[in-house]
Write a structure and sequence with these properties.
Layout (H helix, E strand, L loop, with lengths): L8 H9 L1 H10 L2 H4 L13 E5 L5 H8 L3 E5 L3 H10 L5 E4 L16 E7 L7 H14 E13 L13 H9 L4 E9 L8 E8 L28
Parallel strand pairs: 1-2, 1-4, 2-3, 4-5
Antiparallel strand pairs: 5-7, 6-7
Helix pairs in contact: 2-5
């Protein structure tokens, strides 16, 4: 949500200082509203799920309600504390870590059938994205899926954001062998002028029986761009 990259100590202190305000902002928009265009791509059976840059745990809590075993990664201590408090009844394992390394998840790492990055990727500088992409590929189990919600429009550089396009992100991840199965765009739920969100879903090739997903063909043939709302 707010951060998935290796932030400086000063930046993390600033985030922690506004934790309550950010919690209100994050929790105001529901999981179903943010991910409405890709809900059909989420696993139908309980799986191991990883929420990177989990913020206050809105997405992690929703995944837990769906029966998944969830690890929530969030480097800002105050955001983790808020998330642990407001989502205390959910089965979420909280981890203090960030991209690009995510070293606390181990080498060889734990693998997940679902990995989500919601409003995180644009906080990674270009020099770190390739390393982060390799790490995401390592974390995905064969047949698993990676969902990225990527901000488009004006970039808030004062918040540590970097300009990164959906096309660049797709090119990077598909170069590692991940397959793009969905691309769409939606308006900003908070109504910020010029801001929109790219929904990208990837799948790591594997035998179907290795996943928690219902049998279905990928909805996006290679090289095609579907699901673009006219907003």
């Amino acid at each position: 949500m707010h951060s998935g990259r290796g932030r400086t100590e000063a930046e993390l202190r600033a985030i922690c200082g506004e934790a309550n305000a950010l919690a209100s902002l994050y929790e105001r928009v529901t999981f179903h509203e943010v991910h409405r265009q890709v809900l059909h791509l989420m696993p139908t059976n309980p799986v191991r799920a990883l929420d990177i840059g989990a913020g206050t745990g809105r997405d992690a809590a929703a995944l837990s309600i769906r029966g998944h075993t969830v690890v929530a990664v969030e480097p800002a201590a105050d955001l983790r504390a808020v998330g642990q408090r407001i989502h205390a009844t959910h089965n979420i394992s909280w981890v203090d870590d960030n991209l690009p390394e995510l070293g606390s998840l181990g080498q060889p790492c734990r693998r997940f059938q679902l990995v989500l990055l919601t409003a995180v990727w644009m906080f990674l500088p270009e020099a770190q994205r390739h390393t982060a992409a390799i790490r995401l590929d390592e974390l995905l189990e064969g047949g698993g899926r990676l969902g990225i919600v990527l901000r488009g429009g004006p970039i808030a550089a004062d918040r540590g954001m970097y300009a990164v396009s959906a096309a660049e992100t797709i090119s990077l991840l598909t170069s590692l062998g991940l397959r793009l199965i969905h691309q769409s765009r939606q308006a900003d739920s908070l109504g910020r002028e010029g801001v929109f969100w790219n929904n990208l879903f990837f799948e790591k090739p594997s035998a179907p029986e290795a996943t928690g997903y219902a049998s279905q063909a990928g909805e996006l043939p290679a090289g095609r761009n579907r699901g673009q709302p006219s907003r």
